[in-house]
Amino acid sequence: MRRQEAARYTRLVRRLLTLFILGSGVLLACGGNDLGASDTTSAKSGGGRALSSSPRQGVATFYDADGSGNCSFDASPGDLDVTAMAMPEYDASASCGGCLLVKGPKGEVTVRVTDSCPGCEGSGINLDLSAQAFAKIADPKEGRIDVTYQAVACATAGNVAYHFKDGSSKYWTAIQIRNHRVPVAKVEYKKGDAWVAMKRADYNYFIEASGVGDQPNGLSLRVTATDGQVVEDTLAGGVQAEQTVSGTKQFQ
C-alpha cells in the first residue's frame, strides 16, 4: 500500500504542475514527449455499442500515461489509448476498465479508463488523455480542448480475467476483474449456497477482508456489469496470489 500511495502522490504532483502551466498558456508535455505536428493524424480506434443515451461535453488535456495508474492495471505499452478521469466520474474506481469514445477537433478515439485525475477537479477538466490519444484528436500544441465523450463497450478479445492481488489467501482475498468489455458494478463469491458481495476499493480491487475461506470445489465468482449483464465462473485453483486466471465468458 505504501508503494501505491507513493506512486499516486507522484502522479498527482506531475498533473498539478502540468495543469498549472497549461492554465498559464504554456504547454508542458509531461515526461518530455516530443509530439510535433506530424503526430496529429486523426485516427479512429475500435469501440463497441454505446452504453449511455447521449455523449457528454467536457474538456480534455493530456499527460505521459503508460496504462498504469490508480486502477491498478499493469502498464500497457502496446495499448496507450487510455485516459484518467476527474474524481467525480472516476467514482472510486467504478469507471476503471471502461471505454469512452472521445471526439475532438481533428477526429475521434476510443480510450480505456486506467487512472484518476485528482488535479482535474476544480479546473474544469474531465479527461486527462494519454499523449498518444490526444494527438489523434487534436494538435498537442493546444494542450486543452473541448471534447464530447460517451461510454461504449470495449472492443476486447477473449474472456474476462481474474487477477489476485499480492498477499491474497483464503484469509484475506483481493480480486481485480480484467479484460472486460463493460465496466464492472459488483463482484460476489459463493459461500455455501449464498452469494457474498465483495467490497470495492478505490484502487479497483474487490476485497473480502476475512477471506473467502476454503473452497474445495473451486472459487465461484459472479461478476455483474453496469448494464446488468452477469458472468459466472468457477476457478478450480481457488485463490492464487499475484496470478491472473482466464475466465470462460465475456460480456456482450
What does this molecule look like?
This protein has 252 residues and is mostly beta strands. A 6-stranded mixed barrel has the order 1-5-2-4-3-6. The chain has 2 domains: 2-152, Beta Barrel (Barwin-like endoglucanases), CATH 2.40.40.10; 161-246, Sandwich (Immunoglobulin-like). It has 3 helices and 15 strands. The longest helix has 22 residues, at 2-23. The model is unreliable at 16-45 (pLDDT under 50). The chain has helices at residues 2-23, 87-90, 131-137; strands at residues 56-63, 82-86, 99-104, 107-117, 127-130, 145-152, 161-164, 173-178, 184-191, 194-197, 199-200, 206-208, 219-225, 230-235, 244-246. Helices cover 13% and strands 34% of the residues.
Short note summarizing the structure:
The chain is mostly beta strands. Helices cover 13% and strands 34% of the residues. It folds into 2 domains: 2-152, Barwin-like endoglucanases; 161-246, Immunoglobulin-like.
DSSP strand count:
15
The parts where pLDDT drops under 50 for at least 5 residues are 16-45
The CATH class of the largest domain, by name, is Mainly Beta
Nearest-angstrom radius of gyration? 19 Å
CATH architecture of the largest domain: Beta Barrel
CATH superfamily of the largest domain: RlpA-like domain
Identify the overall geometry. Answer: elongated
Task: Assess the beta-strand content as a share of residues.
Answer: 25-35%
Write down the secondary-structure element order.
HEEHEEEHEEEEEEEEEE
Mean pLDDT: 86
